[in-house]
Amino acid sequence: MLLVAPAGPTATNAGAPAETTRPAASSDRAERTTQAADFFEGGRYVEAALEFEALRRDYPNEPSLLFNAAASRDAAGHFAHAVAYVREYLARTDIGPDDRKQGEEQLEEAARKVTPVTVTVTLPLEGPQTVSVVARHISNSPADLRPELSFPLSNPRQPLKLELDPGAWVVRVEGPGYQPVEQQVAVGSAPLAISLRPELAPVVRPEAPQARMVPPKVVKDTARGLYIGGGAVAAVGLGLIGGGVGMIHGQRIKTCDDPTLADCRRRFANAFVIRNVGSTLLGAGAGLAASALVWRANDARQRMIAWSALAAVGGVGVILGEVLAVRSPIPFSRDNTNPEAALAGWPEHWREHRHSALPALGATLRGLGVGLLAGAVTGLIVQRKHLSPGGARTIRVDPSAGPGHTGIVLSGRF
Protein backbone atom coordinates (compact mmCIF):
# COMPACT_ATOMS: atom_id res chain seq x y z
CA MET A 1 0.00 0.00 0.00
CA LEU A 2 1.32 3.42 -0.93
CA LEU A 3 0.36 6.58 0.93
CA VAL A 4 -0.70 9.40 -1.34
CA ALA A 5 0.99 12.76 -0.72
CA PRO A 6 -1.30 15.32 0.96
CA ALA A 7 -3.33 17.72 -1.10
CA GLY A 8 -1.93 20.66 0.83
CA PRO A 9 -0.78 21.72 4.30
CA THR A 10 -3.06 23.36 6.81
CA ALA A 11 -2.16 25.93 9.40
CA THR A 12 -2.59 23.57 12.32
CA ASN A 13 -1.48 20.33 10.75
CA ALA A 14 0.78 21.07 7.83
CA GLY A 15 1.61 18.16 5.59
CA ALA A 16 -0.71 15.54 7.15
CA PRO A 17 -1.01 12.27 5.25
CA ALA A 18 -4.03 12.14 3.03
CA GLU A 19 -6.47 9.27 2.57
CA THR A 20 -4.83 5.88 2.29
CA THR A 21 -5.80 3.01 0.09
CA ARG A 22 -6.19 -0.15 2.15
CA PRO A 23 -4.93 -3.24 0.33
CA ALA A 24 -7.13 -6.23 -0.05
CA ALA A 25 -4.27 -8.63 0.62
CA SER A 26 -2.32 -7.93 3.81
CA SER A 27 1.48 -7.76 3.81
CA ASP A 28 4.10 -6.67 6.28
CA ARG A 29 4.64 -3.35 4.56
CA ALA A 30 0.93 -2.75 4.15
CA GLU A 31 0.25 -3.52 7.81
CA ARG A 32 3.03 -1.25 8.98
CA THR A 33 1.94 1.57 6.68
CA THR A 34 -1.65 1.20 7.89
CA GLN A 35 -0.46 1.27 11.48
CA ALA A 36 1.58 4.42 10.85
CA ALA A 37 -1.42 6.10 9.22
CA ASP A 38 -3.60 5.09 12.16
CA PHE A 39 -1.08 6.62 14.57
CA PHE A 40 -1.18 9.86 12.59
CA GLU A 41 -4.97 9.93 12.40
CA GLY A 42 -5.12 9.32 16.14
CA GLY A 43 -2.82 12.26 16.87
CA ARG A 44 0.12 10.07 17.90
CA TYR A 45 2.52 11.91 15.63
CA VAL A 46 5.82 10.80 17.17
CA GLU A 47 4.85 7.13 16.87
CA ALA A 48 3.68 7.74 13.29
CA ALA A 49 6.99 9.42 12.49
CA LEU A 50 9.02 6.58 13.98
CA GLU A 51 7.08 4.01 11.97
CA PHE A 52 7.34 5.99 8.72
CA GLU A 53 11.10 6.42 9.33
CA ALA A 54 11.49 2.67 9.82
CA LEU A 55 9.54 2.02 6.64
CA ARG A 56 11.68 4.54 4.81
CA ARG A 57 14.83 2.66 5.84
CA ASP A 58 13.35 -0.64 4.71
CA TYR A 59 11.86 0.71 1.47
CA PRO A 60 14.11 3.58 0.34
CA ASN A 61 12.62 3.66 -3.16
CA GLU A 62 9.20 4.82 -1.93
CA PRO A 63 9.31 8.65 -1.81
CA SER A 64 5.84 8.86 -0.24
CA LEU A 65 7.19 7.24 2.94
CA LEU A 66 9.82 9.98 3.25
CA PHE A 67 7.20 12.67 2.66
CA ASN A 68 4.87 11.24 5.29
CA ALA A 69 7.77 10.92 7.78
CA ALA A 70 8.32 14.66 7.24
CA ALA A 71 4.61 15.36 7.65
CA SER A 72 4.52 13.39 10.91
CA ARG A 73 7.55 15.23 12.32
CA ASP A 74 6.03 18.54 11.30
CA ALA A 75 2.79 17.65 13.05
CA ALA A 76 4.78 16.66 16.17
CA GLY A 77 6.55 20.02 16.16
CA HIS A 78 9.90 18.58 15.14
CA PHE A 79 10.49 21.12 12.42
CA ALA A 80 14.23 20.51 11.98
CA HIS A 81 13.51 16.90 11.04
CA ALA A 82 10.63 17.95 8.80
CA VAL A 83 12.86 20.41 6.94
CA ALA A 84 15.67 17.85 6.56
CA TYR A 85 13.30 15.17 5.28
CA VAL A 86 11.53 17.47 2.81
CA ARG A 87 14.84 18.74 1.42
CA GLU A 88 15.88 15.12 0.87
CA TYR A 89 12.48 14.43 -0.69
CA LEU A 90 12.81 17.34 -3.13
CA ALA A 91 16.32 16.20 -4.11
CA ARG A 92 14.88 13.00 -5.55
CA THR A 93 14.26 12.64 -9.27
CA ASP A 94 11.42 10.12 -9.04
CA ILE A 95 8.61 12.44 -7.88
CA GLY A 96 6.07 14.09 -10.12
CA PRO A 97 5.39 17.82 -10.59
CA ASP A 98 2.38 17.84 -8.25
CA ASP A 99 4.28 15.99 -5.53
CA ARG A 100 7.21 18.37 -5.91
CA LYS A 101 4.91 21.37 -5.58
CA GLN A 102 3.37 19.96 -2.42
CA GLY A 103 6.84 19.30 -1.06
CA GLU A 104 7.93 22.85 -1.70
CA GLU A 105 4.87 24.12 0.10
CA GLN A 106 5.64 21.82 3.01
CA LEU A 107 9.25 23.09 3.12
CA GLU A 108 8.17 26.72 3.00
CA GLU A 109 5.82 26.16 5.92
CA ALA A 110 8.36 24.26 8.10
CA ALA A 111 11.31 26.52 7.28
CA ARG A 112 9.59 29.45 9.03
CA LYS A 113 9.83 27.57 12.34
CA VAL A 114 13.56 26.72 12.41
CA THR A 115 16.62 28.80 13.25
CA PRO A 116 19.80 28.75 11.14
CA VAL A 117 22.89 27.55 12.98
CA THR A 118 26.16 28.01 11.06
CA VAL A 119 28.83 25.44 11.88
CA THR A 120 32.44 26.13 10.92
CA VAL A 121 34.65 23.04 11.03
CA THR A 122 38.43 23.33 11.03
CA LEU A 123 40.21 20.12 10.11
CA PRO A 124 43.96 19.39 10.36
CA LEU A 125 45.58 19.52 6.95
CA GLU A 126 47.25 16.15 7.49
CA GLY A 127 43.96 14.41 8.30
CA PRO A 128 41.00 13.25 6.17
CA GLN A 129 38.96 16.12 4.79
CA THR A 130 35.57 14.42 4.90
CA VAL A 131 33.51 14.42 8.11
CA SER A 132 29.88 14.59 9.18
CA VAL A 133 28.09 17.10 11.37
CA VAL A 134 25.49 15.47 13.59
CA ALA A 135 22.74 17.34 15.43
CA ARG A 136 21.07 15.66 18.43
CA HIS A 137 18.09 17.22 20.16
CA ILE A 138 18.08 17.22 23.98
CA SER A 139 14.56 16.37 25.01
CA ASN A 140 12.84 16.99 28.33
CA SER A 141 10.34 14.20 27.80
CA PRO A 142 10.97 10.46 27.32
CA ALA A 143 8.20 10.41 24.74
CA ASP A 144 9.90 13.06 22.61
CA LEU A 145 11.94 10.66 20.50
CA ARG A 146 13.92 12.22 17.69
CA PRO A 147 16.68 10.52 15.70
CA GLU A 148 19.96 12.32 15.15
CA LEU A 149 20.28 14.38 12.01
CA SER A 150 23.50 13.84 10.07
CA PHE A 151 24.84 16.26 7.48
CA PRO A 152 27.93 15.33 5.42
CA LEU A 153 30.62 18.01 5.20
CA SER A 154 32.44 17.37 1.96
CA ASN A 155 34.10 20.80 1.80
CA PRO A 156 35.43 21.91 5.21
CA ARG A 157 36.44 25.31 3.78
CA GLN A 158 32.78 26.27 3.60
CA PRO A 159 30.61 26.59 6.74
CA LEU A 160 27.62 24.28 7.03
CA LYS A 161 24.22 25.78 7.79
CA LEU A 162 21.90 23.73 9.97
CA GLU A 163 18.20 24.44 10.49
CA LEU A 164 17.21 23.52 14.04
CA ASP A 165 14.16 23.93 16.29
CA PRO A 166 14.40 26.28 19.24
CA GLY A 167 15.65 24.32 22.21
CA ALA A 168 18.76 22.54 23.42
CA TRP A 169 20.89 20.71 20.87
CA VAL A 170 24.26 18.98 20.78
CA VAL A 171 26.22 19.52 17.57
CA ARG A 172 28.95 16.95 16.96
CA VAL A 173 31.62 16.51 14.32
CA GLU A 174 32.77 12.97 13.64
CA GLY A 175 34.53 11.06 10.93
CA PRO A 176 37.08 8.36 10.26
CA GLY A 177 40.43 9.22 11.79
CA TYR A 178 39.05 11.87 14.17
CA GLN A 179 38.06 12.03 17.80
CA PRO A 180 34.43 13.22 17.95
CA VAL A 181 34.09 16.79 19.21
CA GLU A 182 30.78 18.32 20.23
CA GLN A 183 29.24 21.46 21.60
CA GLN A 184 25.88 22.05 23.25
CA VAL A 185 23.94 25.04 21.99
CA ALA A 186 20.70 26.70 23.04
CA VAL A 187 18.82 27.51 19.85
CA GLY A 188 16.44 30.45 20.00
CA SER A 189 14.94 32.69 17.39
CA ALA A 190 18.21 34.44 16.51
CA PRO A 191 20.75 32.79 14.17
CA LEU A 192 23.77 31.16 15.78
CA ALA A 193 27.32 30.46 14.66
CA ILE A 194 29.67 27.95 16.27
CA SER A 195 33.13 26.59 15.46
CA LEU A 196 34.35 23.06 16.03
CA ARG A 197 37.89 21.81 15.68
CA PRO A 198 38.16 18.00 15.77
CA GLU A 199 41.50 16.42 16.56
CA LEU A 200 43.05 13.43 14.90
CA ALA A 201 42.42 10.20 16.73
CA PRO A 202 45.60 8.65 18.12
CA VAL A 203 46.86 5.87 15.93
CA VAL A 204 46.60 2.67 17.89
CA ARG A 205 49.34 0.50 16.60
CA PRO A 206 48.74 -3.18 17.18
CA GLU A 207 51.16 -4.74 19.53
CA ALA A 208 53.82 -6.67 17.76
CA PRO A 209 53.01 -10.34 18.07
CA GLN A 210 55.18 -12.13 20.50
CA ALA A 211 57.82 -14.03 18.61
CA ARG A 212 57.22 -17.70 18.97
CA MET A 213 60.10 -19.50 20.56
CA VAL A 214 61.19 -23.06 20.79
CA PRO A 215 60.68 -24.04 24.43
CA PRO A 216 63.98 -23.85 26.35
CA LYS A 217 63.60 -27.45 27.46
CA VAL A 218 63.31 -28.57 23.84
CA VAL A 219 66.39 -26.54 22.92
CA LYS A 220 68.35 -27.99 25.82
CA ASP A 221 67.25 -31.58 25.25
CA THR A 222 67.82 -31.45 21.47
CA ALA A 223 71.28 -29.92 21.78
CA ARG A 224 72.20 -32.39 24.51
CA GLY A 225 70.97 -35.27 22.38
CA LEU A 226 73.10 -34.15 19.45
CA TYR A 227 76.14 -33.70 21.67
CA ILE A 228 75.72 -37.11 23.29
CA GLY A 229 74.87 -38.82 20.00
CA GLY A 230 77.75 -37.15 18.19
CA GLY A 231 80.15 -37.99 21.00
CA ALA A 232 79.06 -41.62 21.08
CA VAL A 233 79.36 -42.00 17.30
CA ALA A 234 82.76 -40.30 17.34
CA ALA A 235 83.92 -42.56 20.18
CA VAL A 236 82.90 -45.66 18.22
CA GLY A 237 84.67 -44.22 15.19
CA LEU A 238 87.89 -43.64 17.16
CA GLY A 239 87.72 -47.20 18.42
CA LEU A 240 87.37 -48.56 14.90
CA ILE A 241 90.17 -46.32 13.66
CA GLY A 242 92.42 -47.60 16.42
CA GLY A 243 91.45 -51.16 15.67
CA GLY A 244 92.01 -50.75 11.95
CA VAL A 245 95.36 -49.01 12.37
CA GLY A 246 96.39 -51.67 14.88
CA MET A 247 95.58 -54.38 12.40
CA ILE A 248 97.45 -52.60 9.59
CA HIS A 249 100.61 -52.30 11.67
CA GLY A 250 100.17 -55.57 13.46
CA GLN A 251 102.60 -58.42 12.95
CA ARG A 252 100.03 -60.65 11.27
CA ILE A 253 99.83 -58.24 8.34
CA LYS A 254 103.24 -56.58 8.49
CA THR A 255 105.15 -59.84 8.44
CA CYS A 256 102.76 -62.03 6.57
CA ASP A 257 104.07 -65.57 6.03
CA ASP A 258 101.31 -66.88 3.78
CA PRO A 259 102.98 -68.19 0.66
CA THR A 260 99.99 -67.37 -1.54
CA LEU A 261 99.54 -63.92 0.04
CA ALA A 262 95.76 -64.36 -0.30
CA ASP A 263 95.20 -64.26 3.45
CA CYS A 264 97.60 -61.33 3.79
CA ARG A 265 95.78 -59.32 1.14
CA ARG A 266 92.39 -60.04 2.66
CA ARG A 267 93.47 -58.98 6.15
CA PHE A 268 95.17 -55.87 4.76
CA ALA A 269 92.00 -54.83 2.89
CA ASN A 270 89.73 -55.56 5.88
CA ALA A 271 91.92 -53.44 8.15
CA PHE A 272 91.53 -50.48 5.82
CA VAL A 273 87.77 -51.04 5.67
CA ILE A 274 87.57 -50.95 9.47
CA ARG A 275 89.73 -47.83 9.62
CA ASN A 276 87.69 -46.05 6.94
CA VAL A 277 84.40 -46.94 8.62
CA GLY A 278 85.82 -45.54 11.84
CA SER A 279 86.85 -42.34 9.98
CA THR A 280 83.31 -42.01 8.62
CA LEU A 281 81.82 -42.40 12.10
CA LEU A 282 84.33 -39.94 13.55
CA GLY A 283 83.37 -37.34 10.93
CA ALA A 284 79.65 -38.00 11.48
CA GLY A 285 80.00 -37.54 15.23
CA ALA A 286 81.91 -34.29 14.71
CA GLY A 287 79.20 -33.07 12.31
CA LEU A 288 76.41 -33.82 14.78
CA ALA A 289 78.24 -32.02 17.56
CA ALA A 290 78.94 -29.02 15.30
CA SER A 291 75.26 -28.74 14.34
CA ALA A 292 74.32 -28.78 18.03
CA LEU A 293 76.33 -25.58 18.55
CA VAL A 294 73.73 -23.69 16.50
CA TRP A 295 71.21 -24.14 19.32
CA ARG A 296 73.24 -21.63 21.34
CA ALA A 297 71.83 -18.82 19.15
CA ASN A 298 68.69 -17.25 20.63
CA ASP A 299 67.21 -15.99 17.36
CA ALA A 300 65.22 -18.57 15.41
CA ARG A 301 66.03 -16.94 12.07
CA GLN A 302 69.76 -16.97 12.79
CA ARG A 303 69.51 -20.65 13.67
CA MET A 304 67.65 -21.37 10.45
CA ILE A 305 70.30 -19.58 8.39
CA ALA A 306 73.12 -21.38 10.23
CA TRP A 307 71.52 -24.81 9.75
CA SER A 308 70.84 -24.09 6.08
CA ALA A 309 74.52 -23.19 5.65
CA LEU A 310 75.60 -26.32 7.52
CA ALA A 311 73.31 -28.44 5.37
CA ALA A 312 74.91 -26.97 2.23
CA VAL A 313 78.41 -27.58 3.62
CA GLY A 314 77.37 -31.08 4.58
CA GLY A 315 76.13 -31.80 1.08
CA VAL A 316 79.42 -30.62 -0.40
CA GLY A 317 81.31 -32.72 2.16
CA VAL A 318 79.36 -35.85 1.25
CA ILE A 319 80.11 -35.34 -2.45
CA LEU A 320 83.82 -34.62 -1.98
CA GLY A 321 84.19 -37.42 0.53
CA GLU A 322 82.49 -39.88 -1.76
CA VAL A 323 84.73 -38.88 -4.64
CA LEU A 324 87.89 -39.34 -2.54
CA ALA A 325 86.62 -42.54 -0.97
CA VAL A 326 85.92 -44.06 -4.39
CA ARG A 327 88.88 -42.73 -6.38
CA SER A 328 91.81 -42.81 -3.97
CA PRO A 329 91.82 -46.57 -3.17
CA ILE A 330 92.18 -47.52 -6.85
CA PRO A 331 95.97 -48.11 -6.75
CA PHE A 332 95.68 -50.11 -3.56
CA SER A 333 92.79 -52.15 -4.90
CA ARG A 334 94.66 -52.82 -8.11
CA ASP A 335 97.73 -54.08 -6.25
CA ASN A 336 96.10 -55.71 -3.27
CA THR A 337 92.84 -57.15 -4.52
CA ASN A 338 93.77 -58.59 -7.91
CA PRO A 339 95.29 -61.99 -7.25
CA GLU A 340 97.13 -61.84 -10.55
CA ALA A 341 98.88 -58.58 -9.66
CA ALA A 342 102.60 -59.03 -9.44
CA LEU A 343 104.16 -57.95 -6.20
CA ALA A 344 107.83 -57.23 -5.84
CA GLY A 345 107.50 -58.44 -2.29
CA TRP A 346 105.09 -58.23 0.61
CA PRO A 347 107.21 -55.88 2.78
CA GLU A 348 107.52 -53.47 -0.12
CA HIS A 349 103.75 -53.73 -0.82
CA TRP A 350 102.92 -53.13 2.85
CA ARG A 351 105.25 -50.12 3.15
CA GLU A 352 103.80 -48.57 -0.02
CA HIS A 353 100.16 -48.82 1.05
CA ARG A 354 100.27 -48.89 4.85
CA HIS A 355 99.13 -45.28 5.23
CA SER A 356 96.69 -44.67 2.35
CA ALA A 357 95.64 -41.36 3.86
CA LEU A 358 93.37 -40.21 1.03
CA PRO A 359 90.72 -42.91 1.61
CA ALA A 360 90.69 -42.03 5.32
CA LEU A 361 90.31 -38.33 4.47
CA GLY A 362 87.51 -39.07 2.03
CA ALA A 363 85.71 -41.23 4.61
CA THR A 364 86.08 -38.49 7.22
CA LEU A 365 84.71 -35.84 4.87
CA ARG A 366 81.83 -38.09 3.91
CA GLY A 367 81.00 -38.75 7.56
CA LEU A 368 81.30 -35.07 8.45
CA GLY A 369 78.90 -34.18 5.66
CA VAL A 370 76.40 -36.80 6.80
CA GLY A 371 76.65 -35.58 10.40
CA LEU A 372 76.19 -31.94 9.44
CA LEU A 373 73.21 -32.80 7.25
CA ALA A 374 71.60 -34.96 9.93
CA GLY A 375 72.11 -32.38 12.66
CA ALA A 376 70.96 -29.45 10.50
CA VAL A 377 67.84 -31.25 9.28
CA THR A 378 67.04 -32.31 12.85
CA GLY A 379 67.32 -28.71 14.03
CA LEU A 380 65.21 -27.38 11.18
CA ILE A 381 62.48 -29.95 11.75
CA VAL A 382 62.36 -29.46 15.52
CA GLN A 383 62.25 -25.67 15.17
CA ARG A 384 59.65 -25.79 12.43
CA LYS A 385 57.48 -28.08 14.54
CA HIS A 386 57.39 -25.61 17.42
CA LEU A 387 57.23 -22.32 15.47
CA SER A 388 54.77 -23.06 12.70
CA PRO A 389 51.14 -24.26 12.80
CA GLY A 390 51.85 -26.96 10.24
CA GLY A 391 54.83 -28.22 12.18
CA ALA A 392 56.88 -31.00 10.79
CA ARG A 393 53.96 -32.19 8.68
CA THR A 394 54.96 -29.64 6.02
CA ILE A 395 58.21 -31.55 5.40
CA ARG A 396 58.29 -34.48 2.98
CA VAL A 397 60.77 -37.27 2.63
CA ASP A 398 60.85 -38.95 -0.79
CA PRO A 399 63.13 -41.60 -2.29
CA SER A 400 65.43 -40.57 -5.10
CA ALA A 401 67.11 -42.91 -7.55
CA GLY A 402 68.73 -42.57 -10.91
CA PRO A 403 71.73 -43.59 -13.00
CA GLY A 404 74.65 -43.92 -10.64
CA HIS A 405 72.92 -42.63 -7.51
CA THR A 406 70.31 -43.42 -4.91
CA GLY A 407 69.16 -41.62 -1.79
CA ILE A 408 66.37 -39.55 -0.27
CA VAL A 409 65.06 -36.05 -0.95
CA LEU A 410 63.96 -33.89 1.99
CA SER A 411 61.63 -31.09 0.85
CA GLY A 412 59.37 -28.50 2.45
CA ARG A 413 59.47 -25.13 4.15
CA PHE A 414 62.00 -25.10 6.93
UniProtKB/TrEMBL annotation:
Q: Where is this region: Disordered?
A: 1-33
Q: Keyword Transmembrane: yes or no?
A: yes
Keyword Transmembrane helix in the entry? The reply is: yes
Q: Domain of life, per the record?
A: Bacteria
Segments spanning the bilayer are 226-248, 268-293, 305-326
In what ranges is there compositional bias, type Low complexity? 1-21
Q: Which UniProt keywords apply?
A: Membrane, Transmembrane, Transmembrane helix
**UniProt name for this protein:** PEGA domain-containing protein
